[in-house]
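Notebook entry, structure prediction.
Reason for the run: the old model in the group folder had no record of what sequence produced it. Starting over properly, with the input documented here first.
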Amino acid sequence: MLQAIGLTSARHRGLQPAVDDLTFEAGPGCVTALLGAPGSGKTAALRLMLELDPGRGITYFRGRALHRVAQPAREVGVVLGDVPGHPVRTARGQLRMLCAAAGVPASRADELLDTVGLAGLGDQRIASLSPGMDRRLALASALLGDPHTLILDEPAEGLDAREADWMHGVLRSHAARGGTVLYTTSDAKEAARAAGRVAGRVVSIDGGRLVADQDVVEFARTRLRPRVAVRSPHAARLAAVVSREARAARRSVEVVTEASSSRLSVYGSSCAEIGDTAFRHGLPVHQLADEVGDTGPVVSHVVPGGPARRENGADGTGPSEAAAAGTGPDGPDPVGSRPVRSGPDEADPDGPGPGPGPDPGRAEGSPTPNAAGPDLPPPIRRRPARGPLRPVRYELRRLFGVRTTALIMAVALVASAGISVLLARDGRTPLPNVLAAWPSLLPLPPAAICAGLLGALSFGDEFRYPALATGRGTVPRRLRLLLAKLVVSAGVALLLALLVVVTSAASLRLVYGGDLIRIPPNVMSLGVSWSGLTVGCAWAGLLAAGVFRVTAAGVAAVLAVPVLMVPLVQRMPKAPTARSMTGLPGRLRELAWPHWPHETDRWVLAAMRVVAHPVGTALTLSLSVLICAYLFTSVRGRVRW
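New structure, fully documented this time:
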């Protein structure tokens, strides 16, 4: 059960709200269509339901607001636009990444690929999928958590008839299992046929306000009517002739002139009768076809004494409210020309509506929406997306689900091997610099730069392709997600640092022989320094990209460490007599309650030497500033940890 109560968009610069006091229901086991012309507020209403935009009102999903649902992916499945995934990621990789975010097994991805008909296209890149396949993948993403409610925005837009029928079949199947389905459309005929044999309702809105809330049978009877579409260069004369003959024969015939002056819609007649009339009067006809017309929810104006001309409607193809030519005292009024309203003053005879009376899913103590009364509906605050339920697994699948990671690591290895061979040729560069491929001309070695780039992409791709936050364009600033990214980026940086040293040593052994490779006595201190440099660069890129929401900012923060921070640290005034920190590990052991082994003192001393180095000091200062900036932006965004 979905209950939308008093949805009202926030006003911007004095303009009318896109959604104004919209209240309706979508019941279980039912396919509900939210029908309206483009710009009528359908998408804005969905965004208010999902708490993506600020405003007023509340939406209950089986009696609970969305922000009070512990695992939203298992309650609501959403399709808003195209799949927000990296274009080079495969369809299977995208679903497996989202499985980690939803907290479901990875095998669920293969099941849904088979369900939506993409079993043979699992290794296809998202960028190469057709619009129909993209919609199938988006639907599979919404079904990952096996949600009770499906909310879809124009799911059949841009699809051919076959793909649209398939999409409607999936929606009907979900409703037949007891689920709730709500989708938007601007085509009245699609809204009528989407439900099929499953119970369905059509909620019509215009200008952000409720116009009608009907079941499919009543909607088809009052909104859709058979008609004859006629196209003729003498449409005005043909309309007058048809009206005159209908009046003479006392038949209820309605002629409507469309927006194009050469097109007519004739209700209450047939192709044979219109063709015979045109032939008798010598009027050419270019088109003559039976159609089903949408009368539209908006009242039209009538030109007295002539054909009715529609000025506004759902698609501009329906008749006017009053009967046109040929309707006498016995002629019926055109059915469905008046808006059918369902509200507190007029109950819907075909089923329960959002009228008076207690709502079974409404929380106790929640206000009854009444835009005109003193009690306003509660405010809707734009809430950040929830982080993934399995953040480490999500980050691993996000990182290694594209070829960019492997390509960057391969470039780092190849560049490091080549630079090491060149540095060892003159014999003047120290062996640690040769193995790290760090010449004095470069601000950082290739391994550190590539580690910083991978860290920057960790958050940069999240903001560029927001798979976690559909329709938000932001990334949830959750502590678990940040810790997962820090852990994974540190692991990748350490792996890259180890591979670079091994590759450089193998290259030197191959080119110059094994005599050049010697283990230095301070190998532990060098290893800690090398690991700290690569991990620090990775974290600097990650945090800067998270603060400024762009990958370039992360790369700039990495390069700023040797270019700006190191000279700044070196120029700091030094005292003539500096105190020594000799014996600090022993004093720390005395303060600590669990006494660590004496071997740990060597690691603590090595870490102190790394921090005391100008590069280590600059990197430590940069990371401290970035952590404070990340926390400040998170608190400023009112994020609840």
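Summary: The CA atoms of residues 51 and 382 lie 6 Å apart.
The old model has been moved to the deprecated folder.
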